[in-house]
Amino acid sequence: MTVVHRKGQREPKGPEPQTREELAAAFTPPPNSSNAGELSVPNADVSWNGRNVEIPDHFRAYLGDKLSRLEHFDDSIFRFDVVLYHEPNRRQAKQSQVVEVTAVGRGPIIRAQGAGENFYAATELAFEKLQKRLRRSKRRKQIRKDGPNRATSLAEASAVAMPPVGEVGDVDGAADPWDDGVDEYRPGQVVRVKDHPASPMTVDDALYEMELVGHDFFLFHDKETDRPSVVYRRHAYDYGLIRLS
């Protein structure tokens, strides 16, 4: 992509590809690393994306072995998205190599990013964050499954919501339990109001709740700012945050 100035001059825009020497140094294993033994292969599909970076086979094998270890935290993961790119800003030379890993399963999407002098250092940082987030997600699932706030089954919910046979209607002068007070349908009117308890939570907790219910947005009480806020899903796997002032 190029930018055209008024005088017709053109200048490149975006990161330039690294030289072969720089790429070789970025994928050089640390001195204390050991590749002894057979490396594991993840059961989930792996999507590789190198932005102006050619990923060598030995690094794919190294990264695949680490991805297979993450599957122990969540056996529902069916795809890993791995992105590698070089940050061209010279002021960030110590964090110029970036690794992004996204785990996609039946639960919320877990993503982490690491940056370092080489891709091995960036990978260690990214996987350290991923392991913490997967452990936290696993604990939350266990609490929701066994705790007092566990999900109610369809049979239990139907038994509570449905009135007994013979009580529906206005047979004995009783009010219709299905009557919401709206006489006729009028477009553009508010026909349903729901009140939900709003316990203060962090942005990460709000993102987890949004992915848990499968909605594109989630209204919550921000614990950090003590204000009502909204997180929402953007393109690809990005999120947005709206805070009221």
From TrEMBL:
<comment type="subunit">
    <text>Interacts with 100S ribosomes.</text>
</comment>
<protein>
    <recommendedName>
        <fullName>Ribosome hibernation promoting factor</fullName>
    </recommendedName>
</protein>
<dbReference type="InterPro" id="IPR050574">
    <property type="entry name" value="HPF/YfiA_ribosome-assoc"/>
</dbReference>
<comment type="function">
    <text>Required for dimerization of active 70S ribosomes into 100S ribosomes in stationary phase; 100S ribosomes are translationally inactive and sometimes present during exponential growth.</text>
</comment>
<keyword id="KW-0963">Cytoplasm</keyword>
<dbReference type="GO" id="GO:0045900">
    <property type="term" value="P:negative regulation of translational elongation"/>
</dbReference>
<dbReference type="InterPro" id="IPR003489">
    <property type="entry name" value="RHF/RaiA"/>
</dbReference>
<feature type="region of interest" description="Disordered">
    <location>
        <begin position="1"/>
        <end position="21"/>
    </location>
</feature>
<dbReference type="Pfam" id="PF02482">
    <property type="entry name" value="Ribosomal_S30AE"/>
</dbReference>
<comment type="similarity">
    <text>Belongs to the HPF/YfiA ribosome-associated protein family. Long HPF subfamily.</text>
</comment>
<feature type="compositionally biased region" description="Basic and acidic residues">
    <location>
        <begin position="9"/>
        <end position="21"/>
    </location>
</feature>
<dbReference type="InterPro" id="IPR034694">
    <property type="entry name" value="HPF_long/plastid"/>
</dbReference>
<dbReference type="Pfam" id="PF16321">
    <property type="entry name" value="Ribosom_S30AE_C"/>
</dbReference>
<dbReference type="InterPro" id="IPR032528">
    <property type="entry name" value="Ribosom_S30AE_C"/>
</dbReference>
<dbReference type="GO" id="GO:0022627">
    <property type="term" value="C:cytosolic small ribosomal subunit"/>
</dbReference>
<keyword id="KW-0810">Translation regulation</keyword>
<dbReference type="GO" id="GO:0043024">
    <property type="term" value="F:ribosomal small subunit binding"/>
</dbReference>
<dbReference type="InterPro" id="IPR036567">
    <property type="entry name" value="RHF-like"/>
</dbReference>
<feature type="domain" description="Sigma 54 modulation/S30EA ribosomal protein C-terminal">
    <location>
        <begin position="188"/>
        <end position="241"/>
    </location>
</feature>
<dbReference type="InterPro" id="IPR038416">
    <property type="entry name" value="Ribosom_S30AE_C_sf"/>
</dbReference>
